[in-house]
């Protein structure tokens, strides 16, 4: 049976690779793309970024890196073409997982018996094994989180951006587009505009000021 330390070591390995890829993708972003992402989140005023929490910058980068609204390829995909990873390597595995990551609204169920958390996707009701050392140390049972997840080595990781989700946050996000109010969640949760709507609602309601991301190391 895999031990907790072995699992954490694997997680840290893949997390480091994911951070490297995402850092590379940021270099394929223009200042205009970052500005537009900040504007859509309500974090741009009078020609500059306005942040109440340093973690809000992660949300700006998340929206910008994964954005497809410009009609061009995503910054992450441009990075992948410019810096192809060796086939079969952990770098290639992680990059592919990032490119196929999906936005989820999850609820924390309990601690996982090995490491991390057992969470439930609130739309599909699928149980997901999420490893994040910061969340494991601070998340409480029943807590809702909105985040983009990638699956590697049998578990899920976040792409680095996440917001606490309450019923009010979801209500405001869904109300931001009339079509979503008549659609089932299984449709609008996959809308490319939904993550930024949830992030913006969480920011406006001050949820990010109640959340602090820490590196346990």
Notable traits:
single chain, 217 residues, alpha+beta, 5-stranded antiparallel sheet, two-stranded antiparallel ribbon, 9 helices, 7 strands
- Percent strand equals 15-25%
Characterize the overall form: globular
Record the strand order, biggest sheet.
5-4-3-6-7
- Work out the radius of gyration: 17 Å
Number of helices: 9
Q: What number is the mean pLDDT? A: 92
Instruction: Count the beta strands.
Output: 7
Largest sheet: 5 strands, antiparallel
Helix content: 40-55%
* Overall tally of structural domains: 1
- Helices and strands, in order, run as HHEEHHHEEEHEEHHH
Ordered list of secondary-structure elements with their pairings:
Blueprint: H1 4-26, H2 31-40, E1 44-45, E2 48-49, H3 56-66, H4 75-82, H5 90-99, E3 102-111, E4 117-121, E5 127-130, H6 133-138, E6 144-152, E7 155-165, H7 167-175, H8 185-188, H9 194-204
Antiparallel strand pairs: 1-2, 3-4, 3-6, 4-5, 6-7
Helix pairs in contact: 1-4, 1-5, 2-3, 7-9
